[in-house]
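User: Here's a protein and a ligand (protoporphyrin IX containing FE). What would the complex look like?
Assistant: Let me lay out the input and then the predicted complex.
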Amino acid sequence: MNSVRTYTYKIAGASRLSPRWPLPAGHALITNRGLIQIALSPNIPKYTICYPFVRRPSLARNMSARVHARVPIEPQSVDAPLTNSANFLVVTIADASEAVATVREVLADIDNLAKNVSIRDLDASFACTVGIGSDAWDRVMTGLPRPSELHPFRAVRGQKHTAVSTPGDLLFHIRANRRDLCFEFERQLLGALGDAVKVVDDTEGFRYFDVRDLLGFVDGTANPVGQDVEVATLVTAQEDAAVVGGSYVVVQKYVHNMDGWNALSTEQQEAVIGRKKLDNVELKDPAEGKQQPHKSLATIVDDNGDVHEILRDNMPFGNPSKGEFGTYFIGYSKELWVIERMLHRMFIGHPPGLHDKLLDWSKPLTGVTFFAPSADLLKKLR
Ligand code: HEM
């Protein structure tokens, strides 16, 4: 992947220069939306002001003073660490205009609601990320910019399996190392929302042994780490200057046919996933045109050879007494098309017809797309 990173800051009274991409390393660009983007190579520290500015060095001199007063755009806690417990709460918003007003109030104040709970154990890595669905965006975020790629989840119909599209206006991805913190936050949140919303799904996820899913495989290994998390998940001005710092979020609640899965040999299961079960070592990809494992179908390489990563925070869920065993898939990306292409390759197959065999034992019950705006954009609801 390209090693040049682009950071975006809000600055006061920015002037206008027409965007020119890609921005070379060590160059900065002032956009017409009051944002400055600075492309840095790894050997230039993050907060250095870089010269020359694109096109107009005289403007650069004027701007440098203002850049010192920059305020980094604050994302939501998309990059929160993997935790032991989580709730994936999906709700729809009632029709009444008072309902929208209540939702706006609660979302604008969500950081304070989170503080109520997180302070009670600062080591528990409590975080809540709010996602807003396509239809709800125009109702809730009135007067604020709309993410350019945001649209309702598009069902993907393969020959054998379908990625269904289901309702959902808001997602609350609640995470903590303590179940009681997730519970308490959800209690306060739903209390504040009252009958402005209707819960369509609330899945309680738990960490299972060494980060394994209920199929027995370590899940999350190929996630980006360190600075690559931000690169994979947060929209920059290159993708969409209006919603910088936000992230697309796709969720799907899968249930597994455990009897069928357990009837396979370990080698058959490993061929489905593309990794060894015990030590998690990656298997070699089969030849092009042959049945591909899950991990290869979910790897997106563009025409330039760049890999487009996403951040997953999948969680097992279930209830043995009801025969329920599942994986809640959640993927964050700065580009919605990346997750959509993964789904296409999984359900239609690559080549078409050779779908992801994981689906023969995993059925999605839901499918919803959201956009998690930056924390700054949420505060604009105040
Ligand atoms: C039943 C649901 C699913 C299960 C149990 C599951 C499990 C796994 C496992 C065990 C791995 C290999 C280890 C790792 O890198 O994490 C993996 C990789 C991956 N999965 Fe899934 N997955 C599921 C659904 C999905 C969906 C719906 C997507 C995307 C739309 C997805 C995207 C990925 C990606 C991007 C990788 C890493 C590929 C790589 O670069 O090696 N997964 N998954």
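Summary: Residues 213, 215, 217-222, 252, 254, 273, 275, 294-295, 298-299, 310, 312, 327, 329, 331, 339, 342-343, 358, 362 surround protoporphyrin IX containing FE (CB under 6 Å).
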